[in-house]
Amino acid sequence: MPVNDPRFPGAVLLTLILAIVLSIIPLGESVAFWRPEWVALTLVHWALIIRDRISLVMVFAIGLIVDALYGSLLGQHALGYVLVTYLAVRLSLRMTPEAFLQQLALLFAILGVYMLVNLWMLRVISSGGALGWIYWVSLLSSIVIWPVYHSLLGYFHVQRKAL
């Protein structure tokens, strides 16, 4: 059975920093809702690849950094990202890694839970107007971009033969 390892020691951290940068790039108001959940996608990728070596403490710290950058409730994204990583690791144990439709279903479920947690947190801290279906557009764009993004992140790890 092949073993996946990061190509270099800081590969996971570098891809997470790139995902954070992609997440905070300013977009116009009309396309901002279409922005994929880059950090969550990156966490799912690494949870599928190196599931036994991903640190929930590091994921929580990344979430706190994203909270600080967005100016959101401290711990909102941290909780969501820890949940995403935990679910990805647990559910990937029951999945065939090459099954594309299983990956998409897993991603849909995990990102759906993540977005529900974020929506719940938004409702708790504010009494703003209804977001409607437009809130869920980023889930759709994340699912659509996943195959390309997953294969691009594949350049950051190497596959070795197990002993």
TrEMBL record:
Classification via NCBIfam families: shape_MreD
Regions crossing the membrane: 12-34, 54-72, 78-93, 100-121, 133-156
Protein name: Rod shape-determining protein MreD
Membrane topology, record value: Multi-pass membrane protein
Keyword field contains Flavoprotein: no
Keyword Membrane on entry: yes
Subcellular location: Cell inner membrane; Cell membrane
PANTHER family cross-referenced by the UniProt entry: ROD SHAPE-DETERMINING PROTEIN MRED (PTHR37484:SF1)
GO CC terms: plasma membrane
Protein function: Involved in formation of the rod shape of the cell. May also contribute to regulation of formation of penicillin-binding proteins.
GO BP terms: regulation of cell shape
Domain of life: Bacteria
Principal subcellular localisation of the protein: membrane
